Amino acid sequence: MRQGGVHNFPAMDRVIYGKSASQALKEEASRLNAKRVVLIVSRTLNTKTDEIQKIRDALAERHAATIDGIAQHTTRKEAAEVALQAKDMKADLVVAVGGGSAVDLAKIVIMAMEHDISDEAGFDPYPMGPNMSQSPFRAPTVRQIAVPSTLNGGEYNAAALVTDERTKLKQIFIHPEMMPVSIILDPSLTLHTPTNLWMGSGTRAMDHGIEALCSPLGTPLADEVVLAGIRILREGMLKTLDQHDDLEARRMSQYGSWLSAFGLQARIPMGASHGIGHVLGGTFDVPHYYCTPVIMPSLLRYNQPFTEEAQKRLAAALGASGEMAADAFARFTRKLGLPSRLSEVGISPDKFDPISKIAIKHRFVQANPRPFKSEADIVELLHMAA
Questions:
Q1: What residue stretch is flagged as signal peptide (predicted)?
Q2: Residues with Cβ < 8 Å from 212, sequence gap 6 or more?
């Protein structure tokens, strides 16, 4: 039982579910009195489905522009370019429709708009210090709405991951009002999401819950909510695996992602799975949704002496009471057909030293429940995951 701490609540108005994305977004644009709505969307959803057209039709004269062709890893350059487009369109609301990349891009775009950032170097005056509760940014005048098509849950977070292509390092930018003002859950939108992305992003959502549960800065409320989320998410994902078009299973998976991300909403710092995952993705080009299945089992084993009680509860939520949480999680991700070793995502031992040199400085690696005393400890973990 946790003995003391602080639980934070996010700068978010609402999560909307049980309505189509187009209808819910029409109502939200009206509620917020938005006249110039810019959509940042998945190109697949925009060009190979009618989902984005339904949204444009619902918004009618409120629709100002649609921007697609989003990079998998959001970059400073892309953020600056899209912000300039949105300002030219006089956007008063930005809406992300798609996966985590679209959501992160929308978050950082509203800050680039606020601060007139027009290129990569424009972000240099706004470094994030070690205290993530403080932001160098002003509050954005324009807010954003997220309509996720994947499960990773990053929309429930006030931070954005942005890669500086000059150094190929993924950085965290944050302001409380980078949190979407609204999140819209529509399971029918997710029918177009590739299975490997759906399943991989679901493990990323679980990662949010696991790292909050194991964090020494977690809270009793977050513990109970994320455990429920992991349990619901597991059940929904397995049902989706059995039947791709099971909308109720997809709805259940979205609810599980929402609950699993409760630690993000409460600003509980993540741990080394996130920190190392940011290096694997931002610097070594591993798809973001593959980082958790290849790192988490080994990290759970590494953290076991410091998080024993949390891991017992995690194993139960994974349907494996009395087993090692690491074994239960690894078995689950293998059933989903996801990679389980670093070698399967192109990370060979010769890359372990460079990864460790970057990761040791990452704020989430430094917040891991079992401290890493040196780069050698990270290399040891990577060998466990090889």
A1: none
A2: 218, 222, 223, 226, 262, 263, 264, 266, 268, 270
User: Cα(108)–Cα(179) distance, rounded to whole angstroms?
Assistant: 10
When mean pLDDT is compared across 17-31, 153-167, 220-234, 319-333, the lowest value belongs to 153-167
Dihedral sign from CA coordinates of 232, 102, 157, 183:
negative
CATH code assigned to 14-187: 3.40.50.1970
CB neighbour list of residue 105: distance below 8 Å, 6 or more residues apart: 40, 70, 74, 78, 79, 82, 96, 160
What lies within 8 Å, CB to CB, of 239 at 6+ separation is 246, 248, 249, 252
pLDDT digits (tens, 9 = 90+) for 305-331: 999 999 999 999 999 999 999 999 999
CATH superfamily ID and name for 194-384: Dehydroquinate synthase-like - alpha domain (1.20.1090.10)
Domain boundaries, the chain: 14-187, 194-384
Q: Which two tokens stand for residue 318?
A: 């994974």
Q: Is residue 273 within 8 Å of residue 356, measured between CB atoms?
A: no
In sign, the C-alpha dihedral spanning 352, 357, 362, 364 is positive
DSSP-derived secondary structure for 311-351:
HHHHHHHTT-TTS-HHHHHHHHHHHTT---SGGGGT--GGG
Q: What is the mean pLDDT of residues 185-196?
A: 96
Q: CA-to-CA distance for 227 and 54, rounded, in angstroms?
A: 36
Q: What integer best gives the mean pLDDT of the chain? A: 94
Do the Cβ atoms of 336 and 326 come closer than 8 Å? no
Phi, psi of 82 (to 5 degrees): -70, -35
Tens-digit pLDDT profile for residues 365-374: 999 999 999 9
Nearest alpha-carbon partner for 7 in 146, 173, 212? 212
> What's the half-sphere exposure (Cβ side, CA atoms, 13 Å) at 319?
9
Percent of the chain predicted with pLDDT > 70: 98
Domains 14-187 and 194-384 share a fold: no
| The amino acid at 32 | L
Q: Are the C-beta atoms of residues 212 and 226 closer than 8 Å to each other? A: yes
